Amino acid sequence: MIQSSYMILCFEIYKCESLKIILRLKNFDEKMFSLALQVELSCNSGTLDITYVVSLYPLSMATAVVIKNNGRKAVTLNNAILSHFISKKRNGTAIQGLQCSSYCSHPPLSSPFAILSPAEAMKTESPGWFSFGSEPEDKRDSWTLQDVPFTTLNNKLSRVYAVPPKERLKGFYNTLPSKFEIIDQGRELVFRVVRMGFEDIYLSSPGSLSEKYGKYYFICTGLASILEPVIVKPGEDWRGHRLLSMIIYNNISQIFLNSYPFQIIHL
């Protein structure tokens, strides 16, 4: 049972002319979810109709973004749905499920809701004495293939997991995993993230910079279209989905989850 939890949802879009918010309380199949609170945000920005839907369940959260282009020209979008997770221990936080995936160092999309700015996220930091299995981040645009099953997050990093541009030119290539898991060893919690529509996965940890925010450690991760922007042709729409679910072991009773989505639209 979760005794203490909080969630902050923010929706950001530039050049937004109107915004509509709808709240719904729905009953679902008891075998799946007993009750859901659904929040729908609709926004018109020029020729774009943007809808963002958040469905909250007892131990999971489903999000969907739909962007329709009503104009006569194609629109290029850089977008992301990112979440901050606070963990109990700095050395007990890791990601599982990204083995054999390629990544490169990259700053996050700029947002007023971010805890670390792009400059802070990309600031270099030397690994500590007991950072076994961790290496400093490579230079930007330098690709690395992850060959270990776990991504340890006790050191500072800011990276994007994606298919390298050269690989995309081939007729056949390996795509990113459709899901990965965030492990909080201190609270014995696991968060599972399922990806649909988005091509990139963003991941960052603050390292020693977390100390200025309090005693808890935190990471930032989520789904994105950073390296390969989404192109929405006239009359078409684009859809992105994320399912975030939580697994609790040994009746762990405390979780801190701060989730925010943001969209940056380039016309």
Automatic annotation (TrEMBL):
The gene is PNSB2. This is Photosynthetic ndh subunit of subcomplex b 2. GO terms for cellular component: cytoplasm. It comes from the Eukaryota. InterPro entries: GH-type_carb-bd. GO terms for molecular function: carbohydrate binding; glucose-6-phosphate 1-epimerase activity. It comes from Quercus suber (Cork oak).
